[in-house]
Design brief:
213 residues; alpha+beta; seven-stranded mixed sheet; four-stranded antiparallel sheet; 15 strands; 31% helix; elongated
């Protein structure tokens, strides 16, 4: 009888711990690991793209279930500017996420970014965070004849960047380009410029057209 009571206590304690751990999960994955959080599973589709299967039974807060829309709002507002994150729904319980930069950095940031209801709370949080500020400044699309890109690296006056939006017919959206420019840039900086001349795969920008937003 004593053994049975003790066993029931252990089982109850284990169930409680599991429930608390699940309820505490507010990010898609948790580190170190990565371990499952609000995402039940995930897989690498290709370089720069992951697919996450969501635990749509999980609640972001009482009465509000996890959704692809909440994932999109949260990750794009926090990581759109720093990691070029774009989220697309795939069916009812999965999302594909594309990003720029290093895979390890992307997964680390996803593990730190809380998924919140698409609400005023999320908007306020995003507006005061570094990621939110940088995402907002890069919100505008490229203008006519202009390219919008996120910097991958900058060495010896040559910027390597991934094109987020191109309104210049010789540069494709989604491509990686090189730009000859004397400016100082860091990885994940957004730049806008008007391409002028292609010299063996390295573009020059029209004078005065390069801006950081």
């Amino acid at each position: 009888m004593k053994f049975t009571a003790k066993l029931m206590t252990v089982v109850t304690a284990m169930f409680f711990f599991t429930s608390v751990a699940s309820a505490a999960a507010k990010t898609l994955i948790e580190m170190p690991g990565p371990k499952a959080g609000l995402a039940k599973s995930w897989k690498k589709v290709k370089d720069g793209e992951y697919e996450f299967t969501l635990d749509t039974s999980a609640e972001l807060k009482k009465g509000v279930k996890l959704s692809a829309d909440a994932v999109k709002s949260s990750l794009e507002s926090k990581l759109g500017g720093t990691h070029g994150v774009k989220v697309a729904a795939k069916g009812k319980d999965a999302v594909t996420i594309t990003y720029t930069g290093k895979e390890a950095d992307f997964l680390d940031q996803v593990s730190k970014t809380k998924i919140r209801e698409k609400s005023v709370e999320l908007a306020l949080e995003s507006s005061v965070s570094e990621g939110g500020i940088r995402a907002k400044t890069a919100d505008r699309p490229a203008n006519a004849g202009e390219v919008k890109a996120i910097v991958l690296k900058s060495e010896k006056g040559i910027v390597t960047a991934k094109v987020n939006d191109s309104k210049f017919d010789k540069v494709k959206t989604g491509s990686v380009i090189k730009l000859k420019d004397g400016g100082t840039y860091k990885a994940n900086d957004w730049i806008f410029f008007q391409p002028e001349k292609d010299d063996k795969g390295t573009w020059s920008a029209k004078a005065g057209s390069v801006t950081q937003k």
